[in-house]
Write a structure and sequence with these properties.
Layout (H helix, E strand, L loop, with lengths): L12 H28 L1 H4 L6 H32 L2 H19 L5 H4 L2 H29 L7 H29 L2 H8 L1 H18 L6 H9 L6 H8 L1 H10 L1 H19 L6 H29 L1 H23 L2 H20 L2 H7 L6 H18 L1 H11 L3 H19 L13
Helix pairs in contact: 1-3, 1-4, 1-6, 1-7, 1-9, 3-4, 3-6, 3-18, 4-6, 4-9, 6-7, 6-18, 7-14, 7-17, 12-18, 12-20, 13-14, 13-16, 13-18, 13-19, 13-20, 14-15, 14-16, 15-16, 15-20, 17-18, 19-20
Organism: Fontimonas thermophila
GO cellular component, one term: plasma membrane
Subcellular location: Cell inner membrane
Length: 430
């Protein structure tokens, strides 16, 4: 049974692509409302208020917890995704993420229960990371393992579109709340609305996910190979090179995105003096470029190859690091240019990334391997990026934030340089 000849409602291209897109959109919406709240809300409500800088850094520390939980999610959900199938595992991952997010919206604050408040917040953030660690890899495989020949990067970019769509929804919700509520209302109860309302989105996502079929590539693999007993152990032992290369290839992507979102929001609403409403609008403008360049990069990756496409983009990100500080210091026009350019480059690197990482591994450990590479890159590239960037900007100057990005891009460039092209691989026979 080949991918191209599989039929049936459960394998309908529209249904498969929609299922991969809506799941990641919901997951990233949940993930990003936390990122926004970590800048705007949590430092004031969940940590001692006597030192604003310390409260902000503590909030960023809870933000980072999810990235350390994501590889655990990769191992946990990847284990079952490689043994029992992509579909059931994706449902479990979505539930884990959704429940954690809703509970955040119900938590009491530091003023109400003291130190227990940030501890409970950290626990819920861990649950978010665990769920997203299992979600992303499964959604990418749902798309790529159903893709016809020559369109794998195109199919693989649909779950990637969930990132900008989720960000647009999360920023849009916070912007509407900021515009319609007073500060007192927003900090008393308004900030809880996005977290609690995500339960509706999760229910929609579950309904869609339960209507899809198992991927034909995985179904075929089960007919010819017994499931791997411990997929994570096999990835580490037999595919260590792919694991390291995949992690470093994705490094610049994570650093770039969280500098353009979490760090930029922090810097814009403090050092640059913008209100949260003003800067959220500016970020939404930049995110449009992120969304537009994802499909463009997928087309390039299918036509010219994944490696060649990402090499050029990594070099461009390295160059962008040297103009980041001057642009952010050049008034509103410069800030808009920095956000548009940085997030356009983000789309170009993010579009083919899921496809590239999935193609590094054989079917029997692909869920675990691709997820681990992606989420380990999250630890090294994203978990501490807002913290490091804030520290660099305050102690060394804003230019060093750009140098930090350039170094990450050069590391990704090097990993791509020594990697192989994977465009012509047959996933059903690897």
């Amino acid at each position: 049974m080949s991918v191209s000849t599989t039929t049936g409602a459960g394998h309908s291209p529209r249904r498969v692509l929609f299922a991969s897109l809506i799941g990641t959109t919901i997951e990233f919406f949940d993930f990003y409302i936390y990122a926004t709240a970590a800048v705007l809300v949590f430092p004031k409500l969940f940590f001692p208020a006597d030192d604003p800088t310390s409260s902000m850094l503590q909030s960023f520390a809870t933000f980072a917890i999810a990235f350390f939980a994501r590889p655990l999610g990769s191992a946990l959900f990847g284990h079952f995704g490689d043994r029992i199938g992509r579909k059931a595992t994706l449902v479990a991952a979505l539930l884990t993420m959704g429940i954690s997010t809703v509970v955040i919206g119900l938590l009491p604050t530091y003023a109400q229960i003291g130190v227990a408040a940030p501890l409970l917040l950290a626990l819920c953030r861990f649950g978010q990371g665990l769920g997203l660690g299992g979600e992303w890899g499964g959604a990418v495989l749902l798309a790529t393992e159903n893709a016809p020949p020559g369109k794998r990067a195109w199919y693989g970019m649909f779950p990637q579109l969930g990132a900008p769509l989720g960000f647009i929804c999360s920023s849009g919700v916070f912007l509407i709340l900021s515009e319609t509520l007073s500060d007192a209302q927003f900090f008393t109860w308004g900030w809880r609305i996005p977290f609690i309302a995500s339960s509706v989105l999760v229910l929609v996502g579950l309904w869609v996910r339960l209507r899809i079929a198992e991927t034909p590539v995985f179904a075929q693999a089960l007919k010819t190979h017994a499931p791997v007993r411990l997929p994570m152990l096999k990835v580490v032992r037999e595919h260590g090179r792919a694991l390291v290369l995949g992690t470093v290839i994705a490094l610049a992507t994570f650093v770039l995105f969280y500098l353009m979102t979490v760090f930029a929001l922090t810097w814009g609403t403090t050092a640059l003096g913008y209100t949260r409403e003003q800067f959220l609008v500016m970020q939404l403008f930049g995110i449009l470029f992120f969304a537009l360049t994802i499909p463009l990069s997928a087309k390039l990756a299918d036509r010219h190859g994944r490696r060649r496409t990402l090499l050029w983009v990594s070099a461009a990100i390295a160059a962008f690091g040297f103009v980041l500080a001057p642009l952010l210091s050049a008034g509103t026009g410069g800030v808009l240019a920095a956000l548009a350019l940085g997030l356009a480059l983000m789309g170009y690197t993010y579009g083919p990334l899921g496809t590239v990482l999935s193609e590094l591994y054989p079917t029997t450990v692909r869920y675990t391997g691709a997820s681990l590479s992606f989420n380990l890159a999250g630890i090294f590239g994203a978990s501490l990026a807002p913290y490091i960037a804030t520290w660099l900007a305050q102690t060394q100057g804003l230019a060093f934030v750009g140098y930090y990005l350039s170094i990450a891009a050069l590391l990704s460039f090097g990993a791509l340089w020594i990697s192989r092209e994977t465009r012509d691989l047959d996933l059903a026979h690897t």
